[in-house]
Amino acid sequence: MKTLRVELGERSYPIHIGKNLLSRVPAFLTEAGVSVKQMLYVITDENVAPLYLEPLLQSLRESGYTVHSSVVAGGEQAKSFHVFERVMGEVIAAGLDRKSVILALGGGVVGDLSGFVAASFMRGIPFIQLPTTLLAHDSSVGGKVAINHKLGKNLIGAFHQPLAVIYDTDTLTSLPRREVAAGFAEVVKHGLISAEEFVAWLEENAEALNQLEPELIATAIERGCAIKAQIVSEDETEQDTRALLNLGHTFGHAFEAIAAYSQLNHGEAISIGMGLASELAEKMGLCEQGVSERTKRLLARYHLPTEWPDGFDPYDVLEAMRRDKKGVAGRFNLILPRTIGKVEIVKNVDEALILQVMRESAGRRQK
Ligand SMILES: NC(=O)c1ccc[n+]([C@@H]2O[C@H](COP(=O)([O-])OP(=O)(O)OC[C@H]3O[C@@H](n4cnc5c(N)ncnc54)[C@H](O)[C@@H]3O)[C@@H](O)[C@H]2O)c1
Ligand SMILES: O=C(O)C(=O)C[C@@H](O)[C@H](O)[C@H](O)COP(=O)(O)O
Ligand SMILES: [Zn+2]
């Protein structure tokens, strides 16, 4: 097992990464100072529950904890007002109090939803992340918790740090192929924003990583978590540099919202977004020619899309991008590459140029 730390003063917490960690959750709870007098509440989804919920509940009960649970639908639709209201009702009915602890057992959807339930119930109770997807190496770290609105992604949320992240990498063996690929979008993103040599390593080892070779995948997760933890420690509430973690997301979130959170998953949407961001940067002369080609080739090696998806109109995407949280006074503030392994926040990007890049990508698609 490897343990990293997110350094945030009194809100600091460990990220434990390793095999068979779900069976050790009671010990990690003790380490985190959670006593058996505190009621636990596990939130998970319909795909994860049959695989991992019962053994977890059993080990917690055997250790003396009182524990209840909720199971939500699988996928992005669960990050909705409707599901939030339902789970909140179940949590209230179960008799949780201010000392109770929520456990988020699942991918980024369960993590974001459960974290927002924890941030809102009685104005905030502790929660613990038990990630079960590759993508969740990103979502379980950093305390961004949220649900979606039909007009925009993650528009209703909070910053609420977990007490701990317990990442059992054995859970990845049951992930569908499409979700493995989605997870690599955020792994690649972590390389593109901060570490050229990590990108080169991802290029070299793509075949084995796609097969989830255990040692390599553990290294990829550790490196991704470490990059994220460092950025979050420097700028917890995204006053400045945390925005770099948003590479590809202004485009990606717009696709997700327009498609009513179906058709493309988050990893696919931001993969297309990273392709578009790299083209835009080249067009603006921010980075040398070839950065976009290398970015897209790497994403394609992880079976991710990088070109315009069917059924989207560039103008609609541009309008949806206006609701991005980085935008101020209607301006487009985007994260764009300077080179492979270095990105920056570029303010007030010309919308005609953004539209042109999207139209060109849509045009290539139609050929
Ligand atoms: N808070 C953050 O910092 C942050 C960062 C990145 C992404 N996100 C959010 O994360 C969400 C995407 O997360 P995701 O890709 O993990 O999606 P997800 O949670 O929907 O999981 C993907 C699918 O895999 C299933 N699944 C999960 N674990 C499984 C397992 N071990 N075996 C079999 N099936 C399993 C789920 O039921 C779901 O159908 C998006 O809403 C995105 O906005 C948040
Ligand atoms: O943690 C962050 O900060 C990120 O931007 C990580 C992203 O991968 C993640 O998708 C996040 O939820 C996006 O945040 P948002 O503020 O753009 O909704
Ligand atoms: Zn993301």
Automatic annotation (TrEMBL):
One record GO biological process: amino acid biosynthetic process
UniProt pathway: Metabolic intermediate biosynthesis; chorismate biosynthesis; chorismate from D-erythrose 4-phosphate and phosphoenolpyruvate: step 2/7
Chief place where the protein resides: cytoplasm
InterPro entries referenced in this protein's UniProt entry, alphabetically: Dehydroquinate_synthase (IPR050071), DHQ_synth_AroB (IPR016037), DHQ_synth_fam (IPR030963), DHQS/DOIS_N (IPR030960), DHQS_C (IPR056179)
Binding positions (NAD(+)): 108-112, 132-133, 144, 153
Pfam families: DHQ_synthase, DHQS_C
Residues covered by the 3-dehydroquinate synthase N-terminal domain: 71-181
Keyword NAD in record: yes
A GO molecular function held by the record: metal ion binding
GO (cellular component) term, any one: cytoplasm
Subcellular location: Cytoplasm
Cofactor(s) for this UniProt protein: Co(2+); Zn(2+); NAD(+)
Assigned keywords, A-Z: Amino-acid biosynthesis, Aromatic amino acid biosynthesis, Cobalt, Cytoplasm, Lyase, Metal-binding, NAD, Nucleotide-binding, Zinc
Function: Catalyzes the conversion of 3-deoxy-D-arabino-heptulosonate 7-phosphate (DAHP) to dehydroquinate (DHQ).
Family: Belongs to the sugar phosphate cyclases superfamily. Dehydroquinate synthase family.
Annotated protein name in UniProt: 3-dehydroquinate synthase
Organism: Brevibacillus fluminis
Taxonomic lineage from the root: Bacteria, Bacillati, Bacillota, Bacilli, Bacillales
